[in-house]
Amino acid sequence: MGELQSALDALAAEDVRALPPRRQLEGVAELLEARNRIDAQLARRVRAAELQQAPEDDGKKTMASWLRGHGRLASKVAGQTVRIGRALEHLPALEAAFAAGAVSADQVAVVAPVVTPGRRAAALEQGIDLAEVDRMLAAVAAQHDVQRLSRVVHHYLSRLDPDGPEPDPTDERSFTVSTMSDGTVVLRGQLDTIGGEKLKAALESVIQADRPKGDLRTRAQQSADALVQLADNQLASGGLPILRRVKPSVAVTVGAADLAAPATGPAAATTGFGSRVSAETARMLACDGAVTVFRLDEHGKPLNVGRTTRSWPPHLRKAVEIRDDTCVFAGCGAPKHWCDVHHLIHWAFGGETSLDNAALLCERHHTKVHHGFRVQRDPGGRWRTFRPDGSEIVIGTSLLV
């Protein structure tokens, strides 16, 4: 271990930015191989510790819980490391390739289901030579990527039980939504093949429909925006099930003083699920939302509740949609059914709920104009967009000769 630490110290001291491109890539390849070898030894140690019930020495019940608490690993990574260690006991050829750095931990995790107790028993009953299966999968893993390996493993498992019952797709689905201390929402889960296909088809339709010029978002950011857009569309359609006699919606509670103040007001409002957001975010949501006025006593308890009023009645929204047709932010053009109706001068600051004070904006650009950007309609009816520094965003035009 001391020699390994010294080697890592020497690597950390190397000026990698001075290396030529080819040497950079060679170094990356060498490090990937070294990481595979270290991961192999980690899995071996984890399995040995599990067999010894070593976590009890630190007051932990399982190796997965020890890895989460002491190794600060995510639950998924901790569980995968434990499963890899168990699987390698039955896959000596794959274990050797892993130890040599030829395959990765992700590839071993793909193969691990082959040697669960039930599947080992099924292979034994059918006279399948697991040693040969092990050698074949090790060779595939060493020569192909995870996707190709996954298809080979799936093919083997399908043939192992060709007459078995069709699996219930819901057994393979799980999804959790966790809220961090800063309000950020973390999504974790998995879907069966068909469920995943449905989600990917829906996301792809939204992604491909919204490709503005100069879009610098990563694929992950595009997918996240598409997921939020799907939720927006469902909430706006009114077709979701009624939740405890109330139409599902995004709820935000904010004090009247914070709502009307011109300041951003960080952490001034509370969402329906308990997260804190700024007063500016609350104003953005209130642009095209339902507003209910509560009168509170000195202890913050409601004394009475006023009538819920909608900022943009249906006939006005329709008029805005007919006039603007798409998101008016420069270079966007997102379809109207993705858009909110934005008050150019917010009603909390005295702006009217009128056609002249309205603009159609998609969720992303609605957020932008509540955080420094600005849109305005000139006397000729053309929409113009301005950055926070006051400069105008001008879309390039071609000259006709």
TrEMBL record:
The lineage of its organism: Bacteria, Bacillati, Actinomycetota, Actinomycetes, Geodermatophilales. GO terms for molecular function: endonuclease activity; nucleic acid binding; zinc ion binding. InterPro entries: DUF222, HNH, HNH_nuc. SMART domains: HNHc (SM00507). Keywords: Endonuclease, Hydrolase, Nuclease. This is HNH endonuclease. Belongs to the Rv1128c/1148c/1588c/1702c/1945/3466 family. It comes from the Bacteria. Residues 315-367 form the HNH nuclease domain.
